Amino acid sequence: MITSREPLTDAQQHIYSAIAAIPPGRVASYGAIAARAGLPGRARLVGRLLGEVPDDVELPWFRVLRASGHIAMPPGSRGFREQVRRLKAEGVEVVNGRVPLSRFGLDANIDRALWGMPGG
Questions:
Q1: SS3 assignment for the chain
Q2: What is the pLDDT of residues 15-69, one digit of tens each?
Q3: Which ranges carry the Methylated-DNA-[protein]-cysteine S-methyltransferase DNA binding domain (predicted)?
Q4: At residue 48, what are phi and psi to the nearest 5 degrees?
Q5: pTM for this structure?
């Protein structure tokens, strides 16, 4: 459970918990996080809530990417450079702002990757 000095909504709690569960060296798309949080189809909500994370909540925000594997921030921006730096520090390959999801992503079966549950 994610805790904060500010009360969190159920959606925030579920989304932040799903992001916190992404293991180092792996990434997930906004849509995969929404699905894991029980909010399928709410990828934009994930992006919005990532932009509103309370200061006292630490999340591996840099492990969340677009469904294509691309970093969502403008190329060359400070945030873009920081996300690339953090991903590479965990051994994630980033080429031209894109991570090969076939090697580093959890989207194909996020439950199995995160929790070791049988896929279906």
A1: CCCCCCCCCHHHHHHHHHHHCCCCCCEEEHHHHHHHCCCCCCHHHHHHHHCCCCCCCCCCHHHEECCCCECCCCCCCHHHHHHHHHHHHCCCCCECCECCHHHHECCCCHHHHHHCCCCC
A2: 999 999 999 999 999 999 999 999 999 999 999 999 998 888 899 999 999 999 9
A3: 11-92
A4: -65, -45
A5: 0.84
The single residue listed with the structure tokens 């009360």 is 7
Tokens of 101: 């999801």
- Please give the Cα distance from 49 to 103 (Å, whole number): 27
Q: How many residues does the chain have?
A: 120
State how far the Cα of 113 lies from the Cα of 109, in Å rounded to an integer. 6
